[in-house]
Specification:
- The chain has 211 residues and is mostly beta strands.
- Among the domains are: 63 residues, SH3 Domains (SH3 type barrels), CATH 2.30.30.40; 57 residues, SH3 type barrels, CATH 2.30.30.40.
- Helix content is 0%, strand content 34%.
- It contains no helices and 16 strands.
- The strands form 5 sheets. Strands 8-7-6-3-9 form a 5-stranded antiparallel sheet, with no helix packed on it. Strands 15-14-13-10-16 form a 5-stranded antiparallel sheet, with no helix packed on it. The protein has a two-stranded antiparallel sheet with strand order 1-2.
- Strand 6 and strand 7 form a beta hairpin.
- It is globular, with a radius of gyration of 18 Å.
- It starts with a strand and ends in a 9-residue tail after the last strand.
- It comes from Paracoccus solventivorans.
Length: 211
């Protein structure tokens, strides 16, 4: 992470998809170089593909019933909830419009983000460290990913500490999230797939079950 002028910064703290091997991956080799973003500049990635409209992009214009505080006022989806960065870059702004200053620039495709608020076509997101801002919904995906938080995390053949180790990954690697039991999740990346304890992941709730 490098500090930009004023309160702005470029967010470059996570590698791309993990190159999971039989030995540990080198996360540092996957880090991108910081790049400056201009104040108030247009976000070229904000192009709405009508064939790719998901529930997270739909605006609910009529709400006659009292709003559930645990659901977004725009999508009626749960808050908070996890999403991922769709493209290679996403500007996180101080407010929900292009006129607001850019505070962070997320630069790693697939990195998991936590949606904590909604306003129109904008979602307020946070990363693993709580940094973030307002991102246009077209830059986000419902594909679930997670970040490895334990160095040399072991991917096992089954959700069992006695199962054989298929691969290892360094802390900071971004992986695709699949099934989850109360204590384990199956993840994939770099052509490898295996089960990892939830305690070694950021991007999934402790009590979340996925089929």
């Amino acid at each position: 992470m490098t500090k930009r002028s004023g309160a702005e910064a470029a967010r470059t703290g996570y590698p791309g998809w993990a190159a999971l091997l039989a030995v540990a991956v080198t996360a540092a080799a996957l880090w991108g170089a910081p790049a400056a973003a201009q104040d108030g500049g247009a976000d070229p990635a904000i192009e709405i593909d009508r064939s790719d409209v998901t529930a997270d992009s739909l605006i609910s214009r009529h709400q006659a019933t009292p709003r559930d505080p645990n659901r977004g006022p725009v999508t009626n989806l749960p808050l908070p909830r996890y999403v991922s960065l769709k493209g290679g870059e996403g500007n996180a702004r101080r407010g929900p419009s292009l006129s607001h200053r850019i505070d962070w620039v997320f630069r790693h495709p697939g990195m998991p983000l936590l949606v904590v608020a909604e306003f129109g076509h904008w979602r307020r997101v946070e990363d693993q460290d709580g940094a973030g801002g307002w991102v246009h919904y077209s830059l986000l995906s419902g594909v679930r990913t997670a970040i490895i938080t334990t160095d040399m995390a072991e991917l096992r053949s089954r959700a069992d500490l006695n199962a054989s180790v298929l691969a290892r990954a360094e802390a900071g690697a971004i992986v695709r999230l699949h099934e989850c039991t109360p204590d384990w999740c199956r993840v994939s990346g770099g052509g490898e797939k295996g089960w990892v304890p939830k305690t070694s992941l950021w991007g999934v709730d402790p009590d979340e079950i996925r089929d």
